[in-house]
Q: What sequence folds into this?
């Protein structure tokens, strides 16, 4: 977990079915509300679907740039932020070259979208950890949000009664994994009362 960083650069080697299958099996070991398991994982790897993913990535990038005040880094800038941003641009620019997976969850009567999403995020995390355990790299994306949702929904044929809370790009990493950079866990923990460390 401590080296399961987002990977945004991949080699040309395709992800074989057996490796991907182990990620999906791990995904289905996750909990879901009432153990309903109303999830669907859609692998996007045909040239046609990759082209749609690329378009969704472009649309998401337009939003992300504004939201995070991100601009393409100067080629000479070797600072950490520039390096991170460079990798993010590369992932979005080359999105059409990679295999990725859409995570869909069936709507259920009474449950809010947030509650429904809670039934698929654990599966996505299991998928990420299984990918990491096998040496794969992966990156969660927002490409099925923003303008990309309708594009992907139409291209894949996701029915209206399914939500699409997530999307993950997966491949063999160029370079190493991790470690993750996080604030100390103690900053996030309160005892009994909000703010009580
Ligand atoms: C819900 C969600 C959406 C994300 N969307 C994107 C995205 O669209 N593009 C991207 O490059 N990274 C995306 N990320 C990856 C985060 O930027 C990344 O996990 C975070 O910066 C922490 O970095 P690390 O995973 O390398 O530790 C997303 C992560 C989450 C959880």
A:
């Amino acid at each position: 977990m401590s080296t399961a960083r987002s990977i945004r650069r991949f080699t040309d080697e395709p992800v074989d079915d057996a490796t991907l299958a182990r990620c999906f099996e791990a995904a289905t070991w996750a909990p879901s509300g009432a153990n309903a398991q109303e999830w669907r994982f859609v692998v996007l790897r045909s040239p046609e679907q990759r082209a749609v993913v690329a378009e969704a990535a472009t649309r998401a990038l337009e939003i992300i740039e504004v939201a995070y005040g991100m601009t393409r880094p100067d080629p000479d800038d070797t600072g950490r932020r520039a390096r991170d941003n460079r990798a993010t641009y590369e992932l979005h620019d080359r999105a059409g070259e990679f295999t990725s997976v859409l995570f869909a969850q069936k709507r259920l009567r009474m449950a809010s979208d947030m509650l429904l999403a809670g039934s698929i995020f654990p599966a996505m995390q299991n998928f990420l950890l299984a990918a990491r355990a096998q040496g794969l790299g992966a990156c969660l994306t927002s490409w099925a949000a923003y303008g990309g949702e309708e594009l992907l929904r139409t291209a894949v044929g996701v029915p209206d009664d399914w939500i699409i809370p997530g999307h993950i790009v997966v491949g063999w990493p160029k370079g190493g994994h991790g470690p993750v950079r996080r604030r100390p866990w103690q900053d996030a923990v309160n005892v009994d009362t909000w703010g009580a460390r």
Remarks:
- The mean pLDDT is 97.
